[in-house]
From TrEMBL:
Native source organism of the sequence: Umboniibacter marinipuniceus
PANTHER family tied to this protein: CHOLINE DEHYDROGENASE, MITOCHONDRIAL, GLUCOSE-METHANOL-CHOLINE GMC OXIDOREDUCTASE
InterPro entries per record: FAD/NAD-bd_sf, GMC_OxRdtase, GMC_OxRdtase_N, GMC_OxRtase_C
Name the record gives this protein: Choline dehydrogenase-like flavoprotein
Membership in a protein family: Belongs to the GMC oxidoreductase family.
Residues that coordinate or bind FAD: V85
Positions of the Glucose-methanol-choline oxidoreductase N-terminal domain: 83-106, 255-269
Highest taxon of source: Bacteria
Amino acid sequence: MSSSAFDYIIVGAGSAGCVLASRLSEDPNVSVLLVEAGKKDSNPLIHAPTGVAGLAVLGQANWKYNTTPQPQLNARRGYQPRGKVLGGSSSINAMLYVRGQAEDYDQWAALGNVGWDYDSVLPFFIKSECNDTFDDELHGTEGPLGVSNPTHASELNNRFISACEANGVPRNDDYNGHEQAGAHILQRTIWNGERCSSAKAYLTPAVQRNNLTIMTNTLTHRVTLVDGKATGVVVSSQGKERVIKAKREVLLSAGAFGSPQLLNLSGIGAAEELAHHGISPQVELAGVGKNLQDHIDYVVDYRSTETHSSFGISLKGSFQLLGDTFKWIRKREGRITSSIAESGAFFTTKDDGERPDIQLIFVVGMVDDHARKLHLGHGFSCHATVLRPHSRGTVSLASSDPSDAPLIDPQFLADPRDQQTILDGARKMHEILASEALSEGRGALLYPVNYHDDTALMSDIRARADTQYHPVGTCRMGPNNDPLAVVDNQCRVYGVSGMRVVDASIMPTLVSGNTNAPTIMIAEKIAHDIKLGWTT
């Protein structure tokens, strides 16, 4: 084995890792290593926003995880796509910019995480953001992360918003503003006609710095520990294993699945579980891999006779797409700049509920089984997502081999409260989609169901619902009296010095919306803390 040393080693070049690498390397006096198991983000499907559909079909730049059989979903194995590329999941996601609700962060603080209330995290959302539409006390216009509203949105979106209004969901143009509830055009991480992933926003401007080293196609096996201190990592590339030393800190940003897996492989976790895989326990932390939360999601598809307002598979649609592609190549304009998911809504299913508990995402194309099942023709679809699920799952080792996928068990709908919420949310979504405002060109349901019948609707949900791609919580942040806490309020791993986890896995509870923007915020905040801590 050969060895080398850096001040900071960051494992995982996803939404958080790219931010850390960029911010920490702003100091020319430190050396930073960013280690990524995937490739460079050179695939043109990553950068062309509508390429998200192609990435889903081809399964590229993706770990392509599966869950264990889910009892409440007819024992089906769910699909869990995660980015395996520079930018991580921000390079393959639907590019939606959603912060969640202020109450989400106030709840984190109420759980004992000092400094994570909404007022404390808002400056880091603002610091990261460059918004082309909103410029007020809640938004940033000078950050690296480009956020834009669609310039070529389908007319279907206005019909969808009108349908929401007809069903008691008013229009709200800025769901990242003072109030989340309402129907809206979606804000997207798209800038100058291209996807603005964490890699594009943070790494591209930093890649030429002499103090930043980026290793791709490199798998991290474990963190090395000496006398309770993280001293480096063991990695392999092209079949060769090596040890790399960290002079200051090791930062895990491998995500809600990868970070607990690496902790366990390093001997950090529940001793009994580690011993089962022949791993010598180093630090007892029972919460590693526990507290998994994810957004359960149910999709409804309608066929449409219109080809101009939606994406689809047809001869006319193919010619349109070809012309749109040439336009995008020349000018970075036109329909290829669409995230396909273009509008949405937040509402509550509870009579006395003040906070939305359901998110709708409206897509100007048919999406079936994560876009892996293709259908001839055109149409539109809509997702209904339970925002704050009560169900809790786990991530655990399948073996001691770092190349083996972990065992992912979200326990979707295990809590009866989630079953009622998704049932109520799905029924309202069906009512919205069946409204007069969307009647023009609307055809038949792809999967017909009597949504007025709770039994029939729940049967359809159990047959087809799956993740909305927002796993969090498996390295829970909490005070030292929290039995499931893995990291403290500065994301430092309990019982280990010189080591932090910085990604969505540290969220104690799931935010009420998509997780990319909050994950970037987390990394901005911790990078600030790290730099402040090493200079005081």
